[in-house]
Amino acid sequence: MNKNDYIIRLEEKKDYREIENLVRESFWNVYRPGCSEHYVIHVLRDDPAFIPELDFVMEKDGKLIGQNMFMKTVIEADDGRIVDVLTMGPIGITPELKRQGYGKAILDYSLQKATQMGFGAVLFEGNIDFYGKSGFDYASKFGIRYHDLPEGADASFFLCKELRPGFLNDVEGVYQTPKGYYVSDEDVEEFDKDFPPKTKLKLPGQIF
């Protein structure tokens, strides 16, 4: 990957369907047979928690190759406070360019922009092997618990990065996923009919 062979910019309305198809291609059969992520981003753009100023696409040779978006959410602290934080994603890179550094490039760029806007921390679900390279750590190390997760359950998927060092120093509590991320299988199926047919496969390593 050459740093001069791509641009990162804000998503525009004209990009929506192309980005939805990109995300569909990126996530198809990865975590489940088929995927729901392309419908999730379609829904999130109309969610009150969506942050248009942090909705980025990556372009290479005039073609969209990646995207990332952020949503506002909260930690319900054990002492009764409501602490405003961010979550992000789904973050997608076109399949033929995965594992070449483009994902980290748009991730680091978008995190820098979120920091410049004054946000304090980002929490979300992801793989520490990838996101650790951009400064994420296990959320449990910050005293933040994932909602609805039984005590003692594996929470290694739940990650956190402070954008302002020390932002979570005196915070312990429960993170809440924005409701916009929860979509029904029926709605996904209906939305997916507008895209080219693809075969759903049950593959090793899928988690749903």
From TrEMBL:
UniProt organism field: Pseudobutyrivibrio ruminis DSM 9787
Q: Which domain of life is it from?
A: Bacteria
Q: Which Pfam families match?
A: Acetyltransf_1 (PF00583)
Q: Which keywords appear in this protein's UniProt record, sorted alphabetically?
A: Transferase
The N-acetyltransferase domain covers 6-164
PROSITE patterns linked: GNAT
Q: Name one GO molecular function term.
A: acyltransferase activity, transferring groups other than amino-acyl groups
This chain belongs to which protein, by name?
A: Predicted N-acetyltransferase YhbS
